Structures are given as structure tokens and as C-alpha cells.
Amino acid sequence: GRMSANTSMVTEFLLLGFSHLADLQGLLFSVFLTIYLLTVAGNFLIVVLVSTDAALQSPMYFFLRTLSALEIGYTSVTVPLLLHHLLTGRRHISRSGCALQMFFFLFFGATECCLLAAMAYDRYAAICEPLRYPLLLSHRVCLQLAGSAWACRVLVGLGHTSFIFSLPFCGPNAIPQFFCEIQPVLQLVCGDTSLNELQIILAGALLILCPFGLILGSYGRILVTIFRIPSVAGRRKAFSTCSSHLIVVSLFYGTAIFIYIRPKASYDPATDPLVSLFYAVVTPILNPIIYSLRNTEVKAALKRTIQKTVPMEI
């Protein structure tokens, strides 16, 4: 019938994010290219430092290295394609390309949700259970936590993506976003998608709010413990370790909750790409900055590495 003939027509989508800023394409290209290069370089540096420096072998740095590797993948799913679109003015993405981008974005984003929760548990164990810390976070436990985060999220990404792309798209193919994000793609599906929306909101609530709840619980316990520390210096040291993590968590979760846990009718093409920009492009560059600049051990490791590679002047 006409419906099926139309359904098979949508073989590609148009990603219209930032296309309305016609005069600023060159400037946007320069800004995003700079952010992308700094993100990759900063996160890569953390991966190298943690892998090579003997002082950075605690579980906290194992998770930080995993997070940095994750951020490189996460930002590479969206930004290079956006740069290509800004440079060429061609905004097409094939249907399979769109599905692939959605899968990887969900996969990396959902893994980050879990990883931030594992990092909160690590801080909880270090501050609240210092004597049992080596036992609670042995290398095996760290590998299991990181591994289960990756594995479970592959299923999430596959589930969501195959589910949406098995639905019929019957005509309009313009996505008011700079990458294939669930909500705007779902708006192009013809027919009633209220059930799909409900599933996405429920899955989002489970995948975002559960780790977020664990994080809040961990930090609640941490704060109670910190306030019991008699010395001001000890209190300050314990809090500074956590505050950097808290900044990253609030930025990442705040924007993710705003985008994913609400009905698609409230999707606003004018403001939502800016919010998405925040957790897709801005958070990955903040991680190395926040964790390194606020962390004396990482700064010391960087200094040692520079001294090793750059011979001292006589």
C-alpha cells in the first residue's frame, strides 16, 4: 500500500542542528574543532599518565583512566560528523549511519552513568571504610565493575536502537539536532509512539536515576563521615577529592535527566540542541580539566613525565 511505499522511502536523514546559524558556520567549525582536539588530547594524556605512572595505581585512577577512554569515544561519536557538516554544508546521514550513531551515543552515555556511580562508590569506600578499602575495591572488583558497566550498556544501546529503527518512518526526515538522538528521531516515526516514549522514559529513569541514586547515597554517607573528621585540614582534603567528582556528576546527570526523562512533546528544537551540546561536547572536555587541575597527584605525575621526556637544561 501507499504506507509501505512511503515507509521505505526514508533511507537518509538530515541533521539540521546549527544550520540556522548560516553566517557562523566557520566560527562554529573552529570552536568545535578546538574543543574536540583539546578533549581528545586531555583525556588521552590522563590515559597515558595513569597507565605509566607508578603513583597513580589506586582504584580511583583506574576508573579515571576508564572514564577518559570513554570520553574520547563518546565525543568522537558526534563531533567529527558535526565538523564535516559545518565544513561541507551537506547534512545527510544514512539510515544505518543514524542507527549506528544512536547506538554508540547511548552505549557510551549509559556506560558513563555507571562509571560515575562506580567512582562514587570508590570515594565512599576510601573515606567511610578506609580499613576495608583494599578488600572492597580490589583490582578484580574494579575490573568487574567496569566490565559490567560496558556489557550491560551494549544491551541498552542495541535494545533502544533496534527498537526505534524497526518502526516505520513515513516521509519527513529532518532531525532538528546535530546528531541522531532518540527524542528527535522518534518524532519522525509515523503513527502512535506513546508506548515507545513510555519505554524510553522508563529505561531512562532506570539507567539514569539508579546510578544517580547510588551516587547521592554514597555522597550522603561521605558528607556525614567528613563532618566527623576532627581536623580542618583532614576535612578539607577529603572534601576536595569529592568536589571535583561532584561537579562532573551534576553537569552530566543534570542535562541527561532534562533531555531523557520527559515526553517527546516537550522537545524544543531551539533550546534542546544547546542542552545536548552540554553533555555531548562540553562534559568530555571538563573531565580532564576538573580532575587534573584539582588533583595534586595527577599534577605531580604530569610534572614527572615532562621531566622524564624533556631533558633538563644545563
UniProtKB/TrEMBL annotation:
UniProt-listed CDD domains: 7tmA_OR10A-like
InterPro entries, sorted: GPCR_Rhodpsn (IPR000276), GPCR_Rhodpsn_7TM (IPR017452), Olfact_rcpt (IPR000725)
Compartments (UniProt record): Cell membrane
GO cellular component: plasma membrane
Keywords: Cell membrane, G-protein coupled receptor, Membrane, Olfaction, Receptor, Sensory transduction, Transducer, Transmembrane, Transmembrane helix
Single Gene Ontology MF annotation: G protein-coupled receptor activity
Span of domain G-protein coupled receptors family 1 profile: 42-291
SUPFAM superfamilies named in the record: Family A G protein-coupled receptor-like
Family annotation (Gene3D superfamilies): Rhodopsin 7-helix transmembrane proteins
Bilayer-spanning residue ranges: 27-50, 62-83, 103-121, 141-165, 198-217, 238-261, 273-293
Topology in membrane: Multi-pass membrane protein
PROSITE patterns: G_PROTEIN_RECEP_F1_1, G_PROTEIN_RECEP_F1_2
Family per similarity comment: Belongs to the G-protein coupled receptor 1 family.
Role: Odorant receptor.
Protein name: Olfactory receptor
Native organism taxonomy: Eukaryota, Metazoa, Chordata, Craniata, Vertebrata
